[in-house]
Model the fold of this input.
Amino acid sequence: MVGLVLRRVGQAALIVFLVTTLTFVLLRVAPGDPFTATVEHPLIAEETREQWRAAAGLDRPIAEQYIRYLANVARGDFGPSFSKGRPVSEELASAVPNTLLLMLAALVASFVLGVALGVFQAVRRGSIADRAIGGVALFFYSMPDFWLALMVLLLFAYRLGLFPVGGMLNPWSYEYYDIWGRIANRLHHLALPAGTLTLLSAAAIARYQRSAVLDVARQDYVRTARAKGVSERRVVTRHILRNALLPVITLLGLAFPALLGGAVFVEKVFAWPGMGRLAVEAIGTRDYHLVTATVIIAGVMVSIGSLLADLLYAAVDPRLRET
Amino acid sequence: MLVAAWLAVVGVFAGVCTLLARPGLIPSPNASPWRTILDRITRDRLALVGLAFLVTLYFAAAIAPWIAPYEYRVQLDIVELKHQAPTLAHPFGTDQYSRDVLSRVLHGARVSLSVALLSVLLAISIGTAYGGIAGFAGGRLDGIMMRLIDALLALPRILILIAVLALWGGVSLPALVILLGLTGWFGVSRLVRAQVLATRGQDFVVAARALGASPLRLFLRHVLPQAMSPVIVAATLGVGNVIMLEAGLSYLGIGVPQPRPSWGNIIQDGAEYISTQWWVTLFPGLAIVLTVMAFNVVGDALRDAMDPRQVDGR
Done:
């Protein structure tokens, strides 16, 4: 078990390193740099820009820049953000928790909803309820995230006026609320973006869970249990469900990249001040250090997701511990 | 040239359809695998509906310039016909530049569908080659190649695409297809490698090798056909996926260059005015959802039909 953990952590570290290198090279190869993109002003002389580049160390050979950057990151210093005028770590500190909140809310809600629906469908296989839920799940599964976000925004915020159109809290009144009012205000703002992500991801989970249950129901040990005269209820709860919940753990690992990608669009539509929005802005302004840092964080988050999934799998399924 | 390409695509789809339209024959135990798969699919009514929808859509896209009421960038009347809600004359309404949204959705179908189809073709070609090499080579090379795939799969594809497209800014349509293809093959290569590993040691492959077949011949003639069915399923589902990806990129303004319409582009035009002019956003979005649904239904049916564990006549 300890060996497995160590090996997987090593792999995750290697992956994050490769991704960092890839981003670093990609940024340096692309046309433009932080000082051509952010400061588009005809009166700024090329010599001045050269001075800025030299001050930021961008005039050195790429290999040297790369080694310096890695050394700084190893010491926990992500460098300055050229476009925001403050350290990258401060930018991340304000944006990452917002994205995590959004993702975790959607993750929990979609797993509860998706697993429940999938199991229900499989148990009532072929019924009208099964087909109806399957149809709805397919509908949401086939929907681009940004479009669903726009439609949710149109219906619930603009037409029905039930929810705010964007942001994380009400900037005018938030200060005057007591603690419960503040929590309620934040939840009110969280509902639409988290709900959008939940619908999309629950649809995928329900489809997956349904086929996982049906797969297990075909196994020999289930037939044996039935043949022994075990009650149907017990067959479903003890023999089928226990095994059919295993593949869902794999989905936990896959859900991280999917939610992170979805968050980029959902954050844009609902003006949620998170990492996805920060990354898109940073790319637009060629903010080298900020882009690389967001990509590192994304890589770390995805790696932690798949690492957790693997370890959980090994912990729950004794068959996997051998290898 | 473009028209010829489209006719070819439509021809293939029409051919598949006529094949499928045959009444499901009674499956004989000796039927060839492809025959069995065909039989199974023709009995799946939902899949047939999905397939019929796709064929119609591809056909409509192919002849869009002739059936669309207007040209995609013609501005009808920038005073009177701006922001028009759907009417009989303009069933999908008009946008902020007084362009007919129905015409733009029809023209957009050409772009969105062909970008998705071509980039998936590119992706499965690369993925098959890479996975085949890794699976065949084995050992250290295989290990290194698969670690690289792990790293590439660790990042959300959309983030890679946003990064590259935003950095280079306004790429041409062929470049977009190539980029989508280059970022889409990682999963396929894993599938192919797994199949190659499973097939490599089987007796008929060993026999062929003993008879002196070259590695290339072994791969193409004996191993690859076994590996194709999951790849075909992945490709079908992949087209739907890429349609959504391209739409997302175009919505951010870094996908298909304006004013050429793609479904995502039209939504980008509409998103600004979503609170009042909902129709510009709604209709192209529905087109995406229906198309992707059809691809998913057909892909699911293919997966079921190609599953060797399924036994006919249950």
Notes: DSSP finds 13 helices and no strands in chain A.
